[in-house]
Amino acid sequence: MSESAKIKVKKNGPYIVTGNVPLEREYAVTKLIYPLRWEKGESFSSKAQYSLCRCGKSSTMPYCDGAHIKSQFDGTETASNIPFDQRVKKTIGPGIDLNDVEELCSGARFCDIGGGTWQLTEKSDDPSAKEKVIQQSCDCPSGRLVAVEKEIGSPIEPAFEKSISVTDDQATGLGGPLWVKGGIPVESSDGTTYEIRNRVTLCRCGKSSNKPFCDGLHLKV
Q: What pTM value is reported for the model?
């Protein structure tokens, strides 16, 4: 895979992925309504460049088939490009801290387990609660939640290679966002690069109010 890996958001069109970025499917495996873990599915053919659907109407998902043109898709980008650290709401715990930027939520629901990641943070002098905070925050595909080591203030991030996962939610049977991993730059249609982060989620239903990022609206439409 090339170091030139990049995702370009086309105006009212698809995501153009360049740099031989691996593409695979990934499932949120659930028990009742709660997700337990991520599980890898099929891998798609490797291509130097490909276009991924952003409007939610393609007949060749996850790839674009031009349906955005026929449907007159409005893909206007509305997401803020204020850095994550400047938008954080912090929960201080006795054993670990938690950074949270709510507007990045993609509705994955790993944070609901065990009473909630925020409540577990407040009980993180218990090693079991602390471990759950780290696991749940690392399972958050959008990076809304980031656990932070108290002593050195260092964020705890999963180790990802550059890749994209087409996510599916086992509990709802619905397709989720594109999970972009490993710090792949996402370039706006106007040429601006969004903050480069280890993990972000991109809308692929076309309904998000935080385009190009997912806001969980696929669970409601």
A: 0.95
- Tokens (6 digits) for 183: 């710090």
Can you tell me the distance from the alpha carbon of 155 to that of 147, in angstroms, rounded to the nearest whole number?
Answer: 6
Q: For residue 136, give the nearest of 21, 16, 59, 37 by alpha carbon.
A: 37
Q: How many CB atoms lie within 10 A of CB 83?
A: 12
Q: Which residue, among 212, 204, 196, 213, has the nearest Cα to 162 in the 3D structure?
A: 196
Spell out the domain ranges in the chain. 6-79+160-219, 84-156
pLDDT of residue 3: 67
**Phi, psi for 138 (deg, rounded to 5):** -70, -25
Start-end of H helices in 37-92: 67-70
Q: Which two tokens stand for residue 121?
A: 């943070």
Dihedral pair phi/psi, residue 168, rounded to 5°: -135, 145
Q: How far is residue 210's CA from residue 213's CA, in Å, rounded to a whole number?
A: 5
In tens, the pLDDT along 51-105 reads 999 999 999 999 999 999 999 999 999 999 999 999 999 999 999 999 999 999 9
How is the chain split among helix, strand and coil, in percent rounded to 5? Answer: 15, 30, 50
Where does the chain have alpha helices with state H?
67-70, 117-122, 127-139
User: Cα(123)–Cα(127) distance, rounded to whole angstroms?
Assistant: 9
Pair of tokens at residue 143: 């990076």
CA distance 33 to 53: 27
Two structure tokens written together for 49: 């460049």
